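User: Show me a protein chain along with its predicted structure.
Assistant: Here is one chain, sequence first, then C-alpha cells.
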Amino acid sequence: MLSSSSLSLSRNHPVTPDHNAIAQFLRTGNVYGSDTIYREIQVLEPASIYKIEEKFEGHLSLTKQYWKSPIEINEGSSLEKSRDVLISALLNSFEVFSKESLICDFTAGFDSRLNMAVLSQFKPFSDIHSFVFGPDGSKEVELVKGYCNTLGAQCHHFRLPDDWDERIFEYVQKAMPITDGEENIFAYAPILYAQENKAHDFQYSINGLGGELYRDFWWIQEILCSKRPANIDRLIHTRILQYEYDYSIFSDTWNTKIGDVKNTLKAAFEKTLSDMNLHTSYNNLQIDNLYFRQKIRRWAGRTMSSSNHFIHTIAPLTLKKNLEVALTIPARYKRNGRLVKSIIEQLSFPLAELEMLNGTPCQNFRIGNMHKFIPLALDYGKRGVRKIIQKTTNRTILVDRSINYQPSLFFSYLFGNKDFAQAFRYDSLITAGMYDRDKYMRFYQRAISGDFPYYNQLGNILTLEMRIRQDKIRDNNI
C-alpha cells in the first residue's frame, strides 16, 4: 500500500510492525528510504510517475523517475561564476511566488540569512516581515532582534504562551495526525504552535530547509574532497548517531536491532548512491546526494508537509533548479560557507556585516576584516571538544542551551500530569516487550526527576507508543 498518509492507512487497514524500520525510528527519529514502520506501507518515490494496473486489481507500479539530483560537479567554474549563476537561479525562484502576506524565518545562521538577502532584492527590508522563535534572553533571539533593528526589518518574536505547561499535551496530541507520527511529536509540538501563530497574520512562510547543501555541513568530516568513495561509516557515526543514547533499556533482542541500525543505514545509503560511480565521483557530492535524497526527503519533507496544514510553506533552497546549480559547484567554494557568504555580501552587504552565533560576520575572510574572526578560534575549539566528548562519554557539552526551548522543560510539564506520567510506565506500554523492565523504569524515573540527557530518545519511544496505540496492528510481534 502507498499513500501520502501512512497514519490514514494504518488506522483502517491491518498492518504488521517492521522491526528494522522501528529500530531506525527509535535510534534516529527517522525512517530512511521508502519504508515506514509497517511492512505493508511505503511512501512514494520522489519525482516519479506511477501507473495503476487494472488487470492486477489496482496494483500501483513505478513507470518512470523523471528527475534525480546531479551526480557530477562543474569543475571548471570559478567562485565568482558559481556565485552569479546561483544568484540568478535564486532570484528566478523567488520571482514566481507572491511577496504579499509573507513571513520569512530569520535566525543567526546561514540559511535564513541567505533567503533574507534574496528577498531584499524584491522589497526593502522595511517591508519584510521576519520570524524568530525562542525564549526571552536567547542569544539567537537577541541577535535577530538586533539584525532587524539595524536593517529596519519587521521582527515577529514568537514565544511559547505562559500557560504552555497546561497546553503542551494538547499540542502533542495534535502533532500525531499532523506528522503521521513519522517524527518526534514532542519536538514538533512547539513548532506546531509557532506555525499556527504565523498563520493568524500571514499566508506564506519561507524557511531555510536545504541550506546545508550550499555549504560543507554534512561532509566537513571528509577533510579532503576528491574523487573517491565517501566514508559512509564515518558519516553515520559522526553525523546521524552522534547524540546521547541509552542502549541498555532495550531487551536483548531489541538491543541487537538498535545496534544494527548503523548497518541498515549503510545499506540504504549505498543503494541511494547506486547511480553514482563512487570511485570517479566526488566524495562531497556523494554525501550531498545522500542528504538530499534521504534526509531532505524524509525529515525536511515531513516537516514542510506538516507545517503546510497551517500555512503555505516555501523552502526555496530545496527547489529543483537551485539544487541543480548548488550541488554542481566545486567543494572548495563551499568550505566554511564561502559560497553563501559571497552571495550574501553581493546581495546585501549590510546583512553580511551582522554577527552570527559564532561571533563572526557572514563574510569571507580578508586581510581587512581578519580582526573580526578572532571568535572563530574559540568556536572551533568548542566544536572539537564537544565532538570528542560525544564520542568518548556519550554526552553533549558546550552547547548554548539558552538558544532554544529545552525538552527538559517540556517533559517536566508533561510529567506534572499524573495521568500522562502513569500512561507510559512499563506496565502500561503496548511496546513493553521491546524493553528490559527494570532498566526502562530507571530510565523513565530519571526522566521524571529531570537528571536526564536522553529526552530525544524518550520522545521517539513515546511517539512510537502513541502511534501504535492508534493503529490496527495485524500481529503485535514486537
